[in-house]
Write a structure and sequence with these properties.
Blueprint lengths: L1 H41 L4 H134 L5
Keywords: Coiled coil
């Protein structure tokens, strides 16, 4: 936006410069015309009247020249201000471009670091999934082994009960046989 304002200001200064040059050219043309008229009138005027007219023309010429000089000086000053503003804007633009390049470099480094972190995170997630799967497998194996052990324990308990029942039956038979005298104890 400020660059557009600068260009607009520069264009206005150039326009003013041209207008001042055109105005000066018109003034000089007018002076030339008046001088020509003066020469024409000189033939018809008295010397005193001619001097007075010449003085008036000289005054007009000085006024016109002063106005033209003021316009040119104003245009030149505005042009210098515009050039200074243009240089300031160019410097600010270079600074902004340098800052932009620095930010871009930082952004690229951050992007690379972020990609590395994402890869590490993905690797850790895969490890965690793998460990979770191993843990589930181990728990299932433990559950299966526990079920087998419980079944074996049940079988052994049943065997122990059967053996204890057999022993009790045998012990009772032995007592009966001892009591009947068939076995001497």
């Amino acid at each position: 936006a400020s660059l557009q304002q600068l260009l607009l200001s520069l264009r206005q200064s150039v326009d003013l410069g041209w207008k001042a040059l055109i105005a000066e050219d018109r003034l000089l043309s007018r002076v030339e015309i008046l001088e020509n008229q003066l020469q024409t009138y000189a033939k018809n005027f008295t010397e005193d009247k001619l001097r007075e007219e010449l003085r008036n023309l000289q005054k007009d010429k000085c006024v016109y020249q002063d106005l033209a000089k003021e316009c040119l000086q104003k245009v030149l000053q505005e042009k210098l201000e515009v050039v200074q503003r243009c240089q300031d804007i160019e410097r600010e633009l270079r600074n902004a471009e340098t800052e932009c390049a620095n930010f871009k470099e930082i952004m690229e480094k951050d992007h690379e670091e972020l990609q590395e972190l994402a890869l590490k995170h993905n690797a850790q997630v895969l490890k965690a999934v793998e460990l979770q799967n191993k843990l589930q497998d181990a728990e299932e194996q433990k559950k299966d082994a526990l079920a087998i052990l419980e079944a074996e324990n049940e079988e052994l308990n049943n065997e122990v009960k059967r053996l204890l029942a057999n022993e009790a039956v045998m012990h009772e038979k032995i007592q009966q046989l001892e009591a009947s005298g068939e076995i001497v104890g």
